[in-house]
Amino acid sequence: MSATASTPTDIGTPEHIGPRRKTGSLGKRIRSRLTGPISLLVFLGVWQAAVTLTDPDPYILPSPGAVWDAFILAVENGEVWAAMKGSAGPLAIGMLFSLIAVPLGLIIGLSPTLDLITSPYLWGFFALPNVAFAPLLILITGFSTTTSIWMVFLSASVPLCLSCKDGVQAVDTTLVKAGRSFGGGRVAVFVKVIAPCSLPFIASGIRNAISRGFVGLLSVELLIGTKGTIGGEVIQSGRVYDTARMFAFILLLIAIALLLVSGSRWLETWASRWREEVVI
Amino acid sequence: MTTTLQPGTDGRRPLVPGAFRRQRMPHRRGRRRVFTRRQRIVVSVLNLTAFFVIWQLIATYGNVPTLFLPSVTDVWQALVDLNNEGILWDNLWVSLSIYLIGLAISMVIAIPLGLMIGGIPVLDKALSTYIWALYTLPRIVLMPLLLVWVGINDAARIWIIVLSAVPATLVVIMEGVKTVDNSLLVAGRSFGASRYQLFSKIVMPATVPFIAIGVRMGVTRGLLGLFIGEIFTGVNGIGYILTLAQKTFDSATIYAMLLVFLFFCIAMVSATTWLERKVMEGRRQLD
Amino acid sequence: MEKTPETMHTNRSVAVEAHDVSVTYDRLREKDTLIALKDFTIEIEQGEFLAIVGPSGCGKSTFLNVVAGLTFPSSGSIKVMGKPVTGPETDRAVVFQDYALMPWRTTEQNVRFGLELQRRTDSDTKEKVRHYIKLVGLEGFERAYPRELSGGMRQRVGLARALVTEPRLLLMDEPFAAVDAMTREVMQEELAKIVSETGQAIIFITHSVDEAITLADRIAVVTNRPGRIREILEVDIPRPRSRASRSMPEFQELRDRIWDMLSDDPTKAVAPRVEAIPVVEEPPR
Asked: Angle at CA C170, nearest 5°, toward C147 and C25?
C-alpha cells in the first residue's frame, strides 16, 4: 500500500508503532478487550441517531436496521455464502501461487548480483499501486476468475519477495560468522542461521501480502462487478439502488479485511516472538 | 579496517537491511561481491537496456498477441500520439491538480488533528480505535459508497485521496506525540511551563520527525487513493485515457500510461523523501 | 578428536604454527589496499594460554580469523595441529566478542548449535550440553532466550557453545569486552578455572593489559598498522592468579613494560594508507 518497504525494522511505518500492547491486571486486559465492541456499539448508535435525526433518503443512508435486514435476507438467500466462496477461491489460489516469492526473495537476498539486477523491477512493481494493473489485466484476461487470480498474485508476490530479500540481508553478520566458525557450509549456515533469522521478515511479508492480495482482489471485483463475488455484489446492489444491501456487503468486506489483518498480525507476532521488540 | 572484519563492536548489532551485503570477508568458495557506485550505475543502465531490448524482441518475434505485449516502440508511439493529440498533458495536469488539492486538504486536517489526538488522552481513547480501523481498511471498499454519496466527479476523487491520506498521516503523528520522552515534559514543568508552552516548546519540536514521516506516508497513501479514484471515475484525468484505451483494446496506451504512472509515483515519493531529508537536516543544524 | 598418525608424528606438542602470515584487504570505497597483518610469526604449544594485546584496529582479530579459517592469509603459512588451515575445522572453536548467540534459540539449543553444524549430535549430546552448561554456571537457565540473559551470562553461553565441541584450540576474540567491569573479573577467574580443567590451547585477544597478564602464559604484544608482533613475553606469575597478584611487583613490572611498548608505537597515529599489494582471491588449498 505504501511505497516504503514494510519490514520489522522499518519503524517509520505505523504498522509497527501501533497501539501499545496492553499487559497488566485482569481488569485492564478485560477493558482492552472491550474497546473494540464498545467502539462498534458507539458507531452504530451514532449512525442510528444520524438516521433518526436527519431522516435521509434510504438510497443515501439506510438505517442500521435496514442494513441488518438486507444482510439477513442475503444470508437466507445463500447469496452471502456464495459470494464468500466466490471471493475466497481466487484469493486462496493467488496467494498460494505467490508463495513462490519466498524462495525467490531468499535467493535474491543471498546474491548481491541478483539483487542489483532485479531491484529496479521489483521496486517499480512495488511503487506502483496495484490497482493500476487492473485495467491492463482486465483487457488481457477479460472478465473472468483468471483476472482475479492474476491480480492477487501480482499484488501479493512482489511485497513478499521484497520482505524475504530484506530478511536475508538483515541477518547479523556475526551470527553467520559464528555458524561458519563451527565448520558450517553454505547449506548448513542457511538452514541454521539465515532462514530462522529471516523468519520474522517472511512472516511480516506474508502479512503484507495478504492485505495487498485482498486489495488486489477487491479492485478487480469492484471494477468488473460480476455476481457471485463480494465486491461484485456491492456493485450489483449499487446498480439497482439497493443501498442497504450494498452497505451490508461493504460491512462484510470490512469485517473480512479486519479479520485477515489481525489473523496475519498474530502469525507475525508468533514468528518473531524471540525478538526483543515485539512487533505488534 | 578491522571494523570491516568484525562489524559489531557495540554489543548487539542492529538488524539493518543490507548489513549482510556489506560484509567483506573472503568466503571459503570465492568472495562475496560488493559493488562500487560506478559499477552499480553501469549495471543498472545495462540492465534496463537489456530489459527493453528483450521486451522488444519478444514482442516482435515471440509470437505473443499484441494485446498482451505490445512492443516497446508501439508503447513509445502511443505516448507520442497522446502527446500530439494534446490528451496527455491536459489530463495529467487534471490528475496532478486533483492530487495536490486532495493532499493539501489531507495535511491541513491530519497534522493538527494528529497532534491534538496524540496530546489529549481523552480524544485518543475515544477516537483511536476508529482511526486505526479506517487506517487498516482497504480504502477501495469506500469507493462504491463515495460514488453513491458524491457521484462520479472530481469531488469523489478528492474525497478518496483525503480518506486514504488522512488516516495514514494521522496515526504516525498521533503515535509520534506519545513517544515524546516523559522526562522532557517533567523538565518543562519544572521550569513552570504552561500547558500551551509544553505543547509548543516540547511536544511540537519533538514530533517534527514524525510529522515528516507522516507526510511521506500520506503522500504514498494519497497516490493509492488517486489511482483508485482515477480507475473508478474515468471522466477526466489519467483515468479517462485508461478507460478510453480499455474500450478500444489499445494495450499500447495502457502500457504507456503504466509507465507514466510509475514516473508519477517515483517523482512524488522522491520529492517527499527529499523534503523529509531537508527537514531533518534543518533540524540537525538547529541542535 | 580424530588424530591421523601423521599429525601425531609431526609437531605433536605444537598447536598453532604461524609463519610470516600477512593479510591485506582491497578497500573498494577508498580504492586502496590495507595491510591488516604483517609477517606474523608465532608458535603456540598444546595447552598453552596465549594472550594477544594491542590497540584496537591492530589486526589482532584478523589473526584470530586466520587461525579459525574464516579469513585467508595473503601470504605466509598457517598450520593448526600440524595441518594447513583450509577453513573452519572441528578442532577449534571461537568465542565471539558480541556473543553471536542465535536469538531464537534457548541456552540449551544455542550450546548445541556448534555440534549440530559439525554433525556430531548423538544420544550423548544432551548429557554433554547439560555438563557444559553446568560447567559455566548456567544451571537453571537452560530454557532462557539470549534476550533474557545478562551480558555476562550470554558470554557464558558462548563459552559453553565453544567448549561443548571439545576443541583442542579455543579462540577467544575479546570475549569480555562487552561485559561490565565487575562481571568481567568474575568471568576471568572462572575462565582460568574452567580451562585448567579442560586443558586446551587458547588464543585470547584482548585490549586490556591486566586481563592478559592475569590469564596468560605468554603475551604477544601487537602494534598498530600494519599489525606486527612487537614482542612475545613470558608471564611467570604463579597460578592461580587472583586480584592479589596484581599488586605483586612482577605483575606491575610486566604491565609497565607492555604499556611502554604500546605507547611508544611510532605508527600509532598514522593513517592506514599503504602501498598497493596484490590480494589473494582464492584461499590456498
From this structure: 85
Contact by Cβ (8 Å): C220, C204: no
Collect all residues of chain C within an 8 Å Cβ-Cβ radius of residue B22. none
Q: Which chains does B contact via 3+ CB–CB distances below 8 A?
A: A, C
Which residues numbered 149-208 in A keep a CB inside 8 Å of some CB on B? 166, 168-174, 176-177, 180, 185-186
* Nearest Cα residue in chain B from A170: B17
**C-alpha to C-alpha distances, A23 to A31, B182, C16, nearest whole angstrom:** 11, 20, 55
Q: Which residue has 521484497 as its cell numbers?
A: A162
Q: Please give the Cα distance from C176 to C156 (Å, whole number).
A: 10
Distance CA B100, CA B107 (A): 10
Nearest neighbour of A3 by CB, restricted to B43, B171, B220: B220
Number of other residues whose CB lies within 10 A of the CB of residue C263? 9
B9 interfaces chain C, CB cutoff of 8 Å: yes
Q: Please provide the DSSP assignment of A218-245 as one string.
A: HHHHHHH--TTSHHHHHHHHHHTT-HHH
Beta bridge partners of C219: C51, C233
Report which residue type is found at B117: I
Q: Closest Cα partner for C164 from B224, A182, B67?
A: A182
Cβ atoms C240, C73 nearer than 8 A: no
DSSP symbol at A193:
I
- Spatial neighbors of A128 by CB under 8 A, at least 6 apart, are B258, B261, B262, B265
B227-254 in b/e form (b: 16+ CB < 10 A) is bbbbbbbbebbbbbbbbebbeeebbbbb
CA distance B175 to B179: 7
User: At C186, which helix (H) or strand (E)?
Assistant: helix C181-198
Do C272 and B1 count as a contact with CB atoms less than 8 A apart? yes
A128 close contact with B: CB closer than 8 A = yes
B12 and C98 within 8 Å at the Cβ level: the answer is: yes
Highest mean pLDDT among A139-148, A181-190, B45-54, B99-108: B99-108
Q: Do the chains contact at A222 and B140, CB–CB below 8 Å?
A: yes
> Are residues B18 and B32 in contact, defined by beta-carbon separation less than 8 angstroms?
no
* CA proximity to B146, closest of A135, A222, C41, C199: A222
Contact by Cβ (8 Å): A214, A260: yes
Cβ contact B17–A7 (<8 Å): yes
Query: Measured between alpha carbons, how far is residue B87 from residues B81, B287, C195 in Å?
Result: 9, 49, 81
The nearest alpha carbon in chain C to A271 belongs to: C104
**What are the pLDDT digits (tens) for B58-107?**
888 887 787 788 888 888 998 888 888 888 888 888 889 999 999 999 99
Tell me the C-alpha distance between C25 and C43, whole Å.
24
Give the least confident one: A27-36, A197-206, B59-68: A27-36
**For the segment C217-236, what is each residue's pLDDT rounded down to a tens digit?**
999 998 876 778 888 888 88
* Contacting residues of A for C147, CB less than 8 Å apart: 274-276
Considering only the beta carbons, identify the residue of A183, A192, A193 that sits closest to C90: A183
Establish if A4 touches chain B: CB-CB under 8 angstroms.
Answer: yes
CB contact under 8 A, C62 and B12: no
Inter-residue contact B35 to B43 (CB < 8 Å):
yes
Smallest CA–CA distance, residue B84 to chain A, in Å, is 23
Name the pTM for this structure.
0.77
Query: Cβ separation of C57 and B3 shorter than 8 Å?
Result: yes
